[in-house]
Write a structure and sequence with these properties.
Mean pLDDT: 78
CATH architecture of the largest domain: Alpha-Beta Barrel
Number of strands: 18
Distance between the termini: 34 Å
Number of helices: 20
Radius of gyration: 24 Å
Largest sheet: 6 strands, parallel
Helix content: 40-55%
Bound molecules: zinc ion
Length: 474
């Protein structure tokens, strides 16, 4: 079975909509009670997996990305209460229906799902149980207005939510890597939810100062961006200007000022652009040969390119030639992609402009790495600082740091202090409090895989009380 086949179960008085079931990966159900009618002949084990695995349903404008998310997670749900269709994020229905505690019970009893690959059922079910429980808690907190109580509490007013973003797509990068990139409209909706929720978006540096001084305004949020890619200037800055929000961008400087893309992710992006094709790559890298660019084939090609880079150590000009030939092989124009700045770091000129837009530039190492030894680690900070200073950023303001890929260890703290680094951010999800170590501040890595309900849960602070995973890949 190819997975994600659309099926439907209903619980008591269940009513499926055959047209919807046939058309997509969703079904409408109503009910409450105990009788289960299973309409697609799956095993009891699959039923159990399905019951515990419904996901969230976003607003109509987000259904595209929501659909992809459910395909990845193998989950999906759309719940009908009375005449109204409800997403598990609380969308749909009348305000009283959204808020009524009785509906929570009814919704808990109303489930639809997507089928599973049988071999994936156990693993999927375990993570889905947690996701489902979290979604139910968040939805319940919202419906009962508990989330507002948390949002407006003294507890929340003593905490700072630091949001972290990576890329805002220039083109289709979010379809290539939805954990790294999001569409500009998606990002704009995030900023709109900050404004609509009355959140205080502070400059990061001011926010952490006030956090430790016990002087934060209610609902405090700070915005950070990692890596300093060109798309930040082109896509994120205009949206931030629309809302008048300040931000801090942590820049890795090695490729700044070079007309080269960040090769490792650029190769991955090019191969994704050629997805579904079978291409002959034998003249690109020795022993590469002919490959079908399905997911497995793309991973294999990336491994071979990586092995070649480690053994032959080609310089940037050679890597650019490899990228150019790879682009040709998959039917893309290397020069056009470079002219657009796809997966390029901002130039020194672009970096120099940022303070005028209320953007603070800070440190992220020169080569996006965290050496284990003191001397090379400090060299990363010093090279990073020197390149930013040569772009016109005042060196005395360069005293905030973000760990590449979130990799941090306590022995780094002393090394960072010796370089006058005052704060450092991680990829550990959470709200920062006065008790958070200033050199290991938590942040929420916001991606388009986080539902509006989850995002709101982080803004209000409810998510702080739920189990959460650590992100370590950026
Ligand atoms: Zn990074």
């Amino acid at each position: 079975m190819s997975g994600y086949e659309s099926k439907c179960i209903t619980i008591n008085r269940g009513r499926q909509d055959p047209a919807q079931v046939a058309a997509g990966r969703r079904a409408r159900v109503t009910g409450g009670g105990s009788a289960v009618r299973y309409c697609c002949g799956r095993s009891a084990r699959t039923i159990i997996a399905a019951v515990f695995s419904y996901g969230t349903w976003d607003s109509a404008e987000e259904r595209g990305s929501g659909e992809k998310r459910r395909q990845r997670a193998g989950t999906g749900a759309l719940v009908q209460v009375g005449r109204q269709t409800h997403g598990m994020d609380g969308s749909g229905g009348t305000p009283s229906e959204r808020a009524g505690p009785a509906n929570i019970c009814r919704i808990v009893c109303s489930v639809s799902f997507i089928g599973f690959q049988k071999e994936d059922i156990l693993a999927t079910t375990m993570s889905s149980v947690v996701k489902t429980a979290k979604a139910m808690i968040l939805w319940s907190a919202k419906a009962t207005r508990l989330s507002r109580v948390v949002r407006d509490s003294r507890w929340r007013s003593r905490r700072l939510l630091i949001l972290a973003y990576h890329g805002i797509s220039l083109d289709d990068e979010h379809e290539w890597d939805s954990a790294l990139y999001m569409a500009q409209d998606f990002f704009r909706r995030r900023m709109r939810s900050l404004r609509d929720g009355g959140y205080s978006v502070l400059p990061y540096e001011e926010a952490v100062e006030r956090l430790y001084a016990g002087d934060l305004p209610p609902r405090a949020v700070a915005l950070t961006f990692d890596d300093g890619m060109r798309d930040f200037r082109v896509r994120a800055c205009p949206v931030l200007a629309e809302f008048g929000y300040p931000a801090t961008v942590y820049v890795t400087t090695y490729f700044s000022g070079q007309r080269y893309p960040v090769f490792n992710i650029f190769f991955s992006y090019l191969l994704w652009k050629g997805r579904g094709k079978t291409v002959d790559l034998s003249d690109i890298v020795p022993r590469l040969g002919r490959h079908a660019l399905d997911a497995g084939g793309r991973a294999a090609v990336l491994r071979l390119i990586r092995d070649y880079r480690e053994s032959a150590k080609p310089d940037n000009a050679e890597l650019a030639q490899i990228a150019r030939r790879l682009a040709n092989a998959v039917g893309e124009d290397y020069d056009r992609l470079c002219d657009r700045g796809i997966l390029h770091v901002m130039s020194p000129q672009e970096l120099a402009e940022l303070p005028r837009f209320g953007i603070s530039v800070q440190l992220h190492t020169h080569r996006h790495r965290t050496p284990a030894e003191r001397a090379p680690f400090l060299r990363e900070i010093q090279d990073n600082r020197r390149h930013l200073a040569s772009a016109g950023i005042s060196p005395e303001h360069l005293n905030h740091f973000c760990y590449p890929s979130g990799v941090h260890r306590s022995e780094l703290f002393g090394w960072l202090r010796s370089e006058n680094i005052r704060t450092a951010t991680t990829c550990i999800a959470g709200l920062a409090s006065r008790r958070s170590p200033s050199l290991a501040l938590p942040r929420l890595i916001d991606t388009c895989n986080i539902t509006p309900l989850e995002f709101e849960g982080w803004l209000t602070g409810v998510n702080q009380f739920l189990p959460r995973r650590r992100h370590d890949r950026f």
